[in-house]
Amino acid sequence: MIMIGVTGHGKSSTCNSICGGNRFKAASTSQSVTEKVSGVLVRWEGKPDGEPLIVIDCPGFGDSQGRDTEHIADIVYKLRVIHYVHSFLIVINSDERYNQQLQSTITLLSQMFGSEFFQNAMLVFTKFTQNDDSVWARENG
Fold this sequence. Notes:
Number of strands: 5
CATH superfamily: P-loop containing nucleotide triphosphate hydrolases
CATH architecture: 3-Layer(aba) Sandwich
Number of domains: 1
Strand order of the largest sheet: 2-3-1-4-5
CATH class: Alpha Beta
Order of helices and strands: EHEEHEHEH
Strand content: 15-25%
CATH topology: Rossmann fold
Helix content: 25-40%
Largest sheet: 5 strands, mixed
Distance between the termini: 30 Å
Number of helices: 4
Radius of gyration: 15 Å
Shape: globular
């Protein structure tokens, strides 16, 4: 399972939620924190009887230091070592509108991994506002 998306959208935090602990460095900022592709072998939600899986965190696209080309090369290289990815989780900040950076990221990923990318891709929305009005609006449409 690999987290991909725009810088600052919550990929590392999503990895930590899936792992059931703080295995990846995360921060609540739009500045780049993850600098290299990294992964851990864990059990789902950190439970001893959970399914084993490899969780991979990637640097974000639209990197605050302009390192997208370097990050893309690192992602491609590391994924060639793994050979197969079961799930691409496209992590999207729920507070942001669909924008050019997100569109460019999805286009790039489909070019990198081919048409099969979308058969294994899931959207994950993060950073939902948690005040009472926001929660009520989400639950009641």
